[in-house]
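quick one, 119 residues, struct below
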Amino acid sequence: MPHIVIDKKINLFDFASSFAPIFQKSPLIKISTIYVEKNALTALLPVVVIDENHQEFFIQISTTLKKSTIRLLPLTDPIKTDTVKSTLALVYYQIKKWDKDITVTKTNLSEYLKAVVEI
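---
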């Protein structure tokens, strides 16, 4: 399962207040909002991707005292295309823009993180 682990706890309420919708035309990626649970330990971002498939799924950001993880919500389980994997990198870079001090401690998406930086 694609994922990005960050080295610290993210304040999801603060991040949600600065969240900017993500829209890319080709291939189409649309992430328009973020929903944060009342306990602020989990957030969900509804995603629409149209590449070789039309897929709708959720990205989950979960946080603990020492780390935060960005991953696909297992219940929605999209086909893991390059575009789907890129959505996780786009969310990571929006978090990175909001908090420049974060770093990735573990991921299986290194090539996608590099590709998004080059865009």
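The helical segments are 12-18, 82-98, 110-118.
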